[in-house]
Each structure stands twice: as structure tokens, then as C-alpha cells.
Design brief:
With 415 residues, the chain is mostly helical. It is built from 17 helices and no strands. Helix 3 crosses helix 6, helix 11 runs antiparallel to helix 12 and helix 12 packs parallel to helix 15. The longest helix is centred in the N-terminal third of the chain and has 32 residues. It is globular.
Length: 415
């Protein structure tokens, strides 16, 4: 039988949008890995403040920007946000080549890109049910577009590491600018398919009502708050324990060198490979209990993170890094179990605008949690140590997932 991803790519609109977004995802990953590593080099453990600043920008836009974004046609919004993101990258490259790359410059670019992404991502995800309206194909479509991100996370760290060995780090932003333009072109090509033609009579008209649409939609969707809460704890743990904790830990244990960066790339790539492979498999399953699968995925994510620092405590570098890659891969498999189920859960229960509003609410919650966690990073690293902080983040993510599996009430109809 043809794999669901291959069947979807026979659709021209899906193929065009997927191609553009895949390029954008690679550019974003190049910037993400390079920015975190460069920030660690400039500020050590205080690099967590870069993530905290990005989180603050995303939180602010998620809470307030949606009220304005809902008034702009989806395709127009996405195209112009991508164009502006490309401009930010280009201007930052020009400034860095003129004055030199500094932490404030890196933070300024990161905050702007995070703010634009806070509007772009929910608009894109909530448009998938419009592009692929058939319920039986929706889960596969969510998996396909998520797979483009995971593929980029597999190859992006290695491309970034290779480039940093031979060229200026700032040109990772040049690649990101090009990828944003590719994404803008793809969305423009299929823009008509992303228009929601359903009646809008039930949508809120006042500013206050639009700001609260995500909360009201989540309240009308049984099980939504369990998912939003568990996702927030998981995201906080991954932001501090994985995105910041792994580079800091490896810079201490392996050294701030090409070897250290290669180790970071391997661990990051291992997690992304787990999600990519897991997504390709999960979308072919006929799930009897998607709700349990979703929270089992969150528990596996936390378990992999909790065990991640253990190899460096007991093994030498040559054995520890492969073991960490395996644990990151397992954590990534948990992400595959959870991610597609979550998107399908909301996408199959909510109208397009309500889906987008709930995604912005989720984004605000997870980013708010990540902002608190990463802002506390320097203090936690000092009190618990880097390995203890990473393990604690994983334990929290596993704990909330297990609690929901035991105590949470499963909705009558799972997505």
C-alpha cells in the first residue's frame, strides 16, 4: 500500500506548500542551532536568557497579536510575515558584517523572528484542515507537515556545524532569509486553498472577545485543558533541559570546540530523527485509544530527557555521546506519539478560526512556561548543577503525563 505521505504529495497544492515549508524549516533550524551555540560561546550558562527573550516576544504576540491577525486573510498574513522575517535576517547580516556579531544583536534578531513566528505558525497549522479537508487524511497531513520540521532538525545541526567550521556564523542568517522567501512564495502559490469559506456569523466581533477566543474555544472542547497543561510542562522542560541544557553540559564536558558542537548536533539530530521516523510510522496506525497514545508520548519525552545526562556521569566521551543520542532518539519517538495526536485532536473538533485561536493559546502557555524555566536557568544550573537540572526537567514532564493518564478524564470521542 502507498504510504499516506506519498499519497498526499500527489496533490499539487500539498506538494508546493510542503516544499516551501521544508526549505523554511531548514533555514530556521540553521539559525536556531547556530544562535544557541554562539550565545553559549558569548555568555555561557546565561545563554538561557536568549531563549527567555524569544519566549517573552512569542508570549506577548500570542496573547495580543491574534486579535489583529484574525482580521487579515491567512495567506496574506503568512506571506508578509515571511517577507519581514527575511528582511530582519538580511539587516542583521549587514549589521554584523559592519560592526561585528554581538549578543545584543543576536537577541534583537531572535526576538523579532520569534514574534513573527508566533503569528505565522498557528496560521499555517490551522490552515491544514482547509488544504486537506478529508477527515481520514487529516492526521497524515499533520504528520507530513510536522515531518518537514523534523527532517530539518535532523540535517540542520550538521549543516550548521559544517558551515561554522568553514565560514562566518552570521551567514546562517543569510540562509534563513532565503528560506523565508521560499516559504512566502509557496504560500502565495496556494493561497486560495487556505481561505476559510465557512460562515463566520458565530465569530466574536469585539476586541475583548477575539482576545478570549482561544480560552472560550478550549473550554468548549472536552480534554483540551489537560492537553494544554501537559504540553506546557513538557515544553518548559525541553526548553531549559534540552535546548539550553545540552549545549551547556556538552560545552563543559566535551569542551567548547568543534567536537563539542558536533556532539550537540548529534544529540539534537537524534531527537529530531526519533520524531521524524516515529511520525512516518504513527500515521499508518489505526489507533484505538489516541488519548492514551498522546499522553504516553509526553511521558516518553520526559523519560528520555530525565536520563539524558546519565551517560556523561558514568561513561567516557566516546561512549557517552552515542548513548545520549539514543536517549534523545527515544525522547523524539515520544514527541511523534504525542504531536500528531494533539494537532488532530483539535483540528477535528474545532472550526478553523477557533483552532487557530486555541493554537495561539497553547503557544502562549508553552512559551510562558518556557520563559519562566529558561529565565530561572542560571540559578537552577548553579543550585542543581546542569545534569540535575536536565533530569529534573524530564521528571516534571513525565510526572504530569502520568498524572493525566491516571486521573484525567478521557473525552467521549478521541481525535
Amino acid at each position: 500500500m502507498t504510504h499516506p505521505f506519498i499519497a498526499l504529495l500527489h496533490d499539487r497544492n500539498v506538494r508546493v506548500l510542503w516544499g516551501g515549508l521544508a526549505m523554511s524549516a531548514i533555514g530556521t533550524e540553521l539559525y536556531r542551532v547556530g544562535a544557541v551555540w554562539l550565545a553559549v560561546g558569548l555568555a555561557g550558562g546565561d545563554a538561557s536568557l536568549l531563549i527567555a527573550a524569544q519566549a517573552a516576544a512569542t508570549l506577548a504576540v500570542s496573547l495580543g497579536g491574534g486579535a489583529v491577525a484574525d482580521l487579515v486573510p491567512r495567506a496574506v498574513l503568512i506571506v508578509w510575515l515571511n517577507v519581514m522575517s527575511a528582511a530582519v535576517c538580511a539587516l542583521t547580516v549587514a549589521a554584523a558584517l559592519t560592526f561585528g556579531l554581538t549578543l545584543p544583536l543576536l537577541m534583537t534578531a531572535s526576538v523579532a523572528l520569534a514574534a513573527f513566528a508566533a503569528l505565522t505558525t498557528p496560521a499555517l497549522i490551522s490552515g491544514v484542515p482547509l488544504l486537506v479537508p478529508e477527515p481520514e487524511r487529516l492526521r497524515a497531513a499533520n504528520g507530513l507537515f510536522d515531518a518537514s520540521t523534523r527532517s530539518a532538525q535532523v540535517v540542520g545541526p550538521f549543516i550548521a556545524a559544517g558551515w561554522l567550521a568553514i565560514g562566518p556564523a552570521v551567514h546562517l542568517l543569510t540562509a534563513n532569509a532565503i528560506s523565508f522567501l521560499a516559504s512566502a512564495g509557496a504560500v502565495a502559490a496556494v493561497g486560495r486553498q487556505l481561505v476559510d469559506r465557512a460562515p463566520r456569523t458565530g465569530n466574536p466581533t469585539t476586541l475583548l472577545a477575539r482576545l478570549g477566543l482561544g480560552v472560550s474555544s478550549a473550554c468548549r472542547c472536552p480534554g483540551a485543558w489537560w492537553i494544554l497543561s501537559a504540553t506546557s510542562v513538557r515544553s518548559a522542560g525541553m526548553a531549559l533541559g534540552f535546548t539550553v541544557g545540552v549545549p551547556v553540559l556538552l560545552s563543559q564536558e566535551v569542551g567548547f570546540s568543534a567536537g563539542g558542537l558536533a556532539s550537540v548536533a548529534l544529540v539534537f539530530g537524534g531527537s529530531a530523527a526519533g520524531e521524524l521516523i516515529g511520525n512516518a510510522v504513527v500515521v499508518t496506525w489505526k489507533l484505538r485509544n489516541p488519548w492514551r497514545m498522546l499522553f504516553t508520548g509526553y511521558a516518553v519525552i520526559g523519560l528520555g530527557l530525565m536520563l539524558l545526562p546519565v551517560p556523561l556521569l558514568f561513561l567516557d566521551e566516546t561512549a557517552a555521546v552515542p548513548a545520549m543520542v539514543l536517549l534523545a532518539f527515544i525522547s523524539g519517538l515520544g514527541g511523534a506519539l504525542a504531536g500528531v495526536q494533539m494537532l488532530t485532536f483539535f483540528g477535528s473538533r474545532l472550526a478553523s478560526d477557533a483552532f487557530g485561536a486555541v493554537l495561539r493559546l497553547r503557544q502562549a502557555m508553552v512559551i510562558g512556561a518556557a520563559m519562566v524555566a529558561t529565565a530561572a536557568g542560571p540559578w537552577l544550573f548553579e543550585v542543581l548543577g546542569v545534569p540535575g537540572t536536565i533530569a529534573g526537567c524530564g521528571a516534571a514532564a513525565t510526572g504530569i503525563a502520568v498524572f493525566v493518564l491516571v486521573a484525567g478524564r478521557q473525552p467521549a470521542a478521541s481525535g
